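Weekly puzzle thread! Below is a chain. First person to post its structure in token form gets bragging rights.
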Amino acid sequence: MPRSPPRPRGRSSTSGVSQPSAASHAGATAGPPRAVVIACGALARELQALTRGLPGVDVWYLPATLHNRPERIPDLVRGRIREARAGGYDRILIGYADCGSGGLLDRVVEDEGVERLPGAHCYELYAGRSAFAELQDAEPGTFYLTDFLVRSFEGLVWRGLGLDRHPELRSTYFGNYRRVVYLAQTDDVGLVDAARRAAERLGLAFEHRPTALGELEPAVRSFAGAPGAVPLRPLQGLA
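Winning reply:
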């Protein structure tokens, strides 16, 4: 079981890659704005909340299921970069960390002259680099949840791994884990309770770490040229 669990598609995707249309954009305008974020669908709620007050920034989403096939991410991102440039966007932010691409996404970023989000994955992005390193040093056998993964736990983890049909597989998948750490983007007690129940079902200790948007917020605001970060916690609109 990889430390970064698989994630289902984002809200703006159906099957395959979402196309650059009104249905796949957040904040689309009649004429293309000068900036676009090409992002993982797993970040949809957070990016929609963050860019709501940032005029001139569109967000396009790729399916979150690409994290099951990270080798596909770089080429699909490259394709969307070229679509964006053809559509008149002159500033592009890649809404991914490395995300299991083994450095291949960074090659695309360098080749295309664009930026990407910091970090190795969304857990590091939300927790912050030093805080995530401390979590890993304290317990390498940590299974991480975000708001997205808590909402998706039943279908993605429990049924997705076949634990509803074969509960004996729990020790196979999670035998090397010792705890669940829920990196919470919102102050939603319902999600905290759901994350705690998920840890109990996995037979793991539970820890709740509120992170808000972590390094996602300053990265997007800096890209958009926003005048300083405005704290978005609590993000009740994401619940």
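Puzzle host: Confirmed. Bonus trivia for everyone else. The longest helix spans residues 73-86.
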